[in-house]
Batch of 2 targets.
Target 1
Amino acid sequence: MPTEPGNASPSNPIAAPGLGRRRALLAAGAVLAAGVGAAAGELTDGDRTSGRATGADGPPPGAPTPFHGARQSGVTSPQLAATKLVAFDLPPSSTAADREALRTLLAAWTRTLASATAGTGPSPDPRLRAGGTTRLTSLVGLGPALAARLGLAVPAGLAELPAFPGDRLDPARSGGDLLLQLGAADHWTLAVVGELTATAARAAGATPRWSQSGFLPGTEPGATPRNLFGFKDGSANPDEDAARQWVWGPPGPHENATVLVYRRIRMDTAAFAALPEEHQNLAMGRRAGDGAPLTGTAEHDEPDLYAKHPNGAYVIPATAHVRLTGPRLDGGARMLRRGYSYDDAPGDRGLLFCAFMRDPGQFTRVQERLATRDALNPFLEHTASAVAHVLPGAPEGTALGDHLWS
Ligand code: HEM
């Protein structure tokens, strides 16, 4: 993998290949080890655990993440407080025309997102200049149907998910040829950048399919954000070494690509909140208060799935969410979860499950276990779904998806 100029930015340490290997591993592990869950502008857990605070070679807290780099910032940078997912379709004409339309669109999004992220460039929108540099992260992905239709060189395992027991998916909120996920400190930025990217998409012939907004709670620096059940969500995310194996592609053209699995999961938050806290903890396999597994004392303790009470019962019950999702059942495979909450209407709030993995078959294996046995099931309903090949980042001077055309 050649060294790419965009990687060298100290503000995007996880975009590793352009950094010295030791520093890159340290810095990248720092971001992922934390569960990549720090709230807007804060240092991550990893920043603290690696001792890489705001010293000479570290980014100042709140520094914007550059758009350009080996990996897309929407996967690598700390989660910001607000997100917006937008899906588009590219109506079919001829394969050649559609490939050209996609290329045009990816080039336009590269310009728009780079300029919006930097707050400068050929035509930065004046609305983005008002508050100084924009805190914006983004990722762009391609849906399996588009990739197959245009014969694009995407990872072989990219495919739609199978149906799972209990699914109540709304097709109008699911799927899509192109998926864009924006992250920002506030919804203002998302509204403006959402408009600019939609205009560019329409100009290239793409049509909007669905969009979905989400948010995170205000969180102390370095802390894992909570979901609407009140539990810390993202504690057991992979460190950089594990992510190289399970999240990012293998060495080669997909090395800095990954796959996003998105599920919109409605949560009966009132019914769950009415459970005694002890029952909540047993359903999850962790404690709501500190996020520690029922077998441990601290959030980042590894759950001990073999531990038993003197009466022979498992401490982490057989149907606990953490047992059924644990990497031990999956040959050690870990996914990178970057969930957000949503609250669209009374009775329609929950989790935007956004997880990144090399092989979406991993999600299928875990969800097949969850769909039939998870103790959380009485409180959950999956209402939308999408899969996308998240393109490698665009190093300085290149556009997203350039590798698709060579
Ligand atoms: C609304 C639905 C869900 C809620 C509220 C939820 C919540 C949680 C919580 C609180 C944890 C423990 C803390 C952590 O490690 O982040 C967790 C872990 C996890 N969840 Fe979920 N989750 C949901 C759906 C899913 C789905 C659909 C999947 C995948 C099919 C999934 C996969 C995982 C994985 C892989 C872990 C880490 C397990 C480990 O390594 O110990 N979750 N989830």
Target 2
Amino acid sequence: MSVETSFSALLIHGTRQIVYWALQPILIAASLYLAHTNASLDTHILFITAAFCIITLFEITIPARPEWRKSAGETAALLVFVFLAGAAYALIETLYEASLFKWMAGLSEAWRLDIWPSQWPKIAQVLLIFSAFEFVNYWYHRASHRWGWLWRLSGHSAHHAFKKLSGLNAVANHPLEGFFLILPRAIVGFLLGGEAVGAAFISLTAVTAILAHSNLHLNSALVGWFFTTNRYHIHHHSQVISESNTNYGCVCIVWDRLFGTFKDADTKDTGIDDVQPDYRAMLLMPFKR
Ligand SMILES: [Zn+2]
């Protein structure tokens, strides 16, 4: 083995070790630091974009499953699907803002539900809204797997249809699922308040969701007690239904641990079938049995 070959092997090994042990803790700590320093929404968006690029770079160079590397065509198709879902999400949010949220805000004011602990340190507030949001999301997610009509109507099957996962899959949802995904946040906001920490909460949720879908070797031992790691979430994407009916917390695993749906096991194949359906079939999923 030449000196050059052994040096690049050492470099790859070292990078794998750093990513395995440190990537998720560093990104979580950075999200909480931004919360602590009251960073602006623009800074959070910049941070999420940088984190996504770094994760994608590692997925290309040191993937956990090399067979999950996407071709340029597969990436382009996924990007179009994600863009479509994002546009639908924005539209649905506007619809909710003008109707349901307006009504809920009026109710909240009338009932004086002013219980948010705004005197707490910012990091504690972020962790509180993070776990409260995930509590509601956990039950929606569990219900969507349990009840056939919700599984179909929400199009959640489209999110599960992918055979190759990567960080980008965190936002690969059916456009109609926005109707359901936006609601938990509104319910938590209505009951607890805490919208002021919204921007800080976005970073923590986004980086954890991207990592939970990432094709990287990550350590679950420490952060995995509270945060969802990709070992747990990829298991939720398993093709085996009994395995898929576990680990419903997309970013916070603590509710699965408490409500008995936590599972720590290896995953063979992901998806809902041996072959990934085409995007047309995915878009039609809410309308077909
Ligand atoms: Zn699911």
